[in-house]
Amino acid sequence: MKTFSFIGSDKNAGKTTAFNFIVSQLKKSLICLTSIGINGEFFDSLENHKKPAIKVPCGALFVTTVDQLKTHPGSYELIEFLYPPTFSKNFVLAKSLGTYEFILEGPNQKSEILSLKNLLESLYPEIILLIDGSIDRQFLGHPTVSDAFYFSLLLSQRPDQKEKAKNLLYPLYIPLVDKKLKNKIEKLKDQDSRSLLFIDDNILYRSKEIPGLDKKLEELIHHPVEENAPKKILYLNGALSKTLARTIAPKKDLIVILDNFTLFQNISQDAQKESLFRPPLFLFHPLNIKGIFLKEEQGQQRPIDLKFSKNIPIFNIYREIPHEITAES
Amino acid sequence: MKLQLNRNHIHSDLFEELGFEDYLKKFEIHLPFINHLILSPLPKAEGKLHFEQLKLILNLSLNNKIQIDELIALCSRILPLENVFSSLLNRQLEQYQLYLIYTFIEQEFKITKIEKELPLEINLSKLKEIQETLNHFCEEGAKIIRFSKEELDLKNKIFSSDKLLEKKLQEHESKILEETGLSFLYPYPREIIDIPPLLLEKIKNSKLLSLKKKSEFYEVNHIVSQEIEELEKSIRHLRDELENEIKNRLEKLGEILFPYAEELILAYEKRKKRAYLYALIKTLHQFNLCLPTFSENEFEIKKGHLPCLQQNNLENYVPLDLKMKGHGAHVLFGANMAGKTSVLKTQYFLLTLLRFGLPIPAEEIRLGFPNDVQIHLKNSGKIKQKLSGFADELTFFSQGFESGAYLLVDELFHSTNPLAGLQLSKIFLHYYSTKNVLLFCTSFYPEVLYLDEIHFYKMVDATLDLEVEKPINEILSQTPFRVEKVEKHNVGKSFWECQQPLKLALHFPLNDELKKNILAAIKE
Fold first, then answer.
1. Please, which residues bridge with residue B325 across strands?
2. Do residue A73 and residue B95 have CB atoms under 8 angstroms apart?
3. Residue B147: its chain A contacts at CB < 8 A?
4. Angle of helix B95-114 relative to helix B261-287, nearest 10 degrees?
5. Cβ-based neighbour number of residue A203 at 10 Å
6. pLDDT digits over B21-58, tens only?
7. Which residues in chain A have their CB less than 8 angstroms from residue B94's CB?
8. Lowest CB count within 10 Å: A82, A292, B203, B288, which one?
9. CA A21 – CA A16 distance, rounded (Å)
10. What distance in Å separates residue B246's CA from the closest CA in chain A?
């Protein structure tokens, strides 16, 4: 079983279109579609425009709430009910009996996704689970949840959107922590540690608090180490928030290791400016990208550099640029 | 299944202190159709019946006439039907709800087969009829709708039209590729920048594509043939037709099943109640709990546990053994730190659980059904309610107690001056000794011991060495924590011999002069 999650840099970054695109590419595989929260509505009432619906092909499995099944009676076969307390609501795992546009409203907690994965694996070991995800669900970055990601980038000259796209891509440049240090962290952290601060083998702090709100952690980060002492190592399994990034940015005596790339999202531009962010940054779990989808607002000028060192396929699904990037078939 | 107690009926300070919530966790069992249950105290008759049923189930399971684990496993496959019932009563069933009804009936038949010794009074033939109706309408255990011939024809038409549309679109895309070199894939329209002049010419000349100049790019879209447009329209129409057919049939099914609603709901509610009893017995077996024996004139606890106390003192914990009359006034005295308040709290914990219909952590308990259990702990008053400790105690006694109530009072009327406290103690003890309630209290007033109609108990003292000072923890570990009945002829002797508090004081780090004076007092 494989799980691929879709994450967009912004609202209207083309995530659902990318999702539909990959679904159409996987016709010959057994797939299951789910989403973090509601996706596939036909209209965005907040921004007042039409949205692409999610097309569930014939024979594909999907997860949604019982309320979302009312639209197409007779169009599905029930496979399993997913109910409280394991799940937060009454969800169903169903098989589509034709190509239908369903609104997907899947579970949005890590434990729920893991339970769903266990069920799917027991029923269909070869299945591919596609999660229409959300960047603020940091658990998606954990390897027990997602094997790889598809990114949808909104390329815009608007400062906020530009920053969000850059932030989503930034983790591609963050190196992976070396094996020795990874093993050490594995030994020192608890299963649900949100932060771990240590020097050599000495734990200075280990906590389940949200790192950005953890005053004690902040205090210990500020606490100076003796001259020539080894650097403090900070492992984070909670968002590297704006405030925390500002606290960490000037610290030369610190090495920061993020559990996964989703934790990086919230750093604002000023805190992130490469020259100001002193501590070396590493990822604990690798970021596997299956592909990047582009949605370009402007014409010629790309707001950010898209030349990646890694060999990542780029899908420019809305645009044809002869002699440069073409959509892969 | 997650249990919760209605906290309005439990002393606010004791709910957490005595670990009621932790105890309830023992009863957490996977039973999705009883997801969350808030328990309230049971009225006497209902409570007695409840425990009678539990005893019956317990005996059957002990004699291997029913297998609790198997029954629980079958019940765990029943899903909540509450939402289904509201749809059924509105005659508007959804497809997924048919599966839920079917699963319930299927499990019900399986359960009925193995609980022959204790059949649930439900109308199985009605359930059978519902199942047959569902089988007529659905396939594979109601996981899928059984299509009529007309619906199947429609479905096949949709399927072949979908295939045809796919083929036509592929042909359309191939033609575009052939004419212009553009691989036209989902989604449309597509934007093109920097179009080479030759390509621009080809697009302009193509009848399959439209071209719009935007500020920085061209927007190119399909011009699909009329054939494709009509095909798409026809597929939409066929889908609507099929869905309407099924909606109509679901409506008819709602009408057919409506008359069965009452029987179905009744069967479901009965199954829920029974599954709850099975869950209680499963937990009883798992944690070695006990059910009460009801006898109006008796009160006996054998090895009653207060789990929160036991957890803190695994090695030296002494469970409570207590035997007394089932009514009247009972006074417990004993030295400080001898465990008097723990005796009260253990009784309160066990009696409260019984009041809510739960098995208790004890070897045996024999008593009248505790339909009213009240406790008053010594305190310095309640500022919010503007009550002093004394007023709070009187307020406690001002409430009406039900016949058969259990009243547990810590240090009866020690909230006022000793002379008045003694007078009040005598008045209240005398009053409750003649009522059909059980008052169990602790006291330090020696004079109450001479009241005729009162029953006395004392905490057995630890043997203390007057010469060798020991740490308090060590003394506590040697304290017997046992309640002993004091016979009438030994009442005075027992009390006056009780110099344990003075002896205990010697083990605290007091100054030498104080210790010397205490020792002299003991020896006098």
1. B298
2. yes
3. 74
4. 50
5. 12
6. 999 999 999 999 998 899 999 999 999 999 999 999 99
7. 66, 69-70, 73
8. B288
9. 8
10. 6
Contact across the interface for A320 and B190, Cβ inside 8 Å: yes
Name residues 85-144 of chain B within 8 A of A (Cβ).
94-96, 99-100, 140, 142-144
What is the 8-class DSSP label of residue A173? G
Give the whole-angstrom CA distance, residue B71 versus residue B107: 10
Q: Measuring CA to CA, which residue among A19, A25, A17, A24 is closest to residue A52? A: A17
Q: Mutation test of the interface with chain B: which of A90, A152, A320, choosing the one with the most B Cβ atoms within 10 A?
A: A320
Alpha carbons within 13 angstroms on the beta-carbon side of residue B472 total: 9
Query: Average pLDDT of chain A?
Result: 84
Helical packing angle, B261-287 and B68-75, nearest 10° = 140
Per-residue pLDDT tens over the stretch B161-213:
988 998 998 898 888 888 887 776 666 777 887 778 888 888 888 888 888 88
Within 8 A by CB and 6+ apart from B120, the residues are B112, B267, B270, B271, B274
E strands, B25-80, where?
36-39
pLDDT of residue A145: 93
Handedness of CA B166, B172, B175, B177 (dihedral sign): negative
Task: For B139, name the nearest residue in chain A, comparing CA atoms only.
Answer: A77
Give contacts of B217 with chain A, Cβ < 8 Å: 299, 319
DSSP element (H, E) containing B394: helix B389-398
CA distance A144 to chain B (A): 25
The answer to whether residues A251 and A274 touch, using CB atoms and an 8 Å cutoff, is no
- Would you call B314 an interface residue with chain A, using a CB distance cutoff of 8 Å? no
Q: What is the 3-state secondary structure (H, E, C) of B412-435?
A: CCCCCCHHHHHHHHHHHHHHHHCC
Phi, psi angles (nearest 5°) of residue B512: -60, -40
Per-residue pLDDT tens over the stretch A250-296: 888 899 999 988 888 655 444 445 556 778 899 999 989 999 988 87
Average pLDDT over residues A182-205: 91
Residue B247 has pLDDT above 50, yes or no: yes
Cβ neighbours of A78 in B, within 8 Å: 95-96, 99, 142-144
* Identity of the amino acid at B311: Q
Instruction: Select from B267, B227, B14 the least CA-distant residue to B122.
Output: B267
Picking from A77, A98, A296, the nearest residue to B143 by CB comes out as A77
- Residues of chain B with Cβ-Cβ distance to A319 below 8 Å are 190-193, 217
Separation CA A59–CA A77 (nearest Å): 10
Across A88-103, b (16+ Cβ under 10 Å) vs e yields eebbbbbbbbbbbebb
SS3 content of chain B, % helix, strand, coil (to 5): 50, 15, 35
Of the candidates A123, A145, A121, A119, the one whose C-alpha atom is nearest the C-alpha of residue A134 is A145
At B22, list the tokens. 């932790």
Q: Are A161 and A64 in contact (CB under 8 A)?
A: no
Amino acid in the structure at residue B389: G
Chain A residue closest in CA terms to B148: A74
Radius of gyration of chain B measured on its C-alpha atoms = 38
> What's the pTM?
0.81
Cβ–Cβ contacts within 10 Å for residue A85, how many? 12
Helix boundaries (H) for B138-196: 149-180
DSSP code of residue B334: -
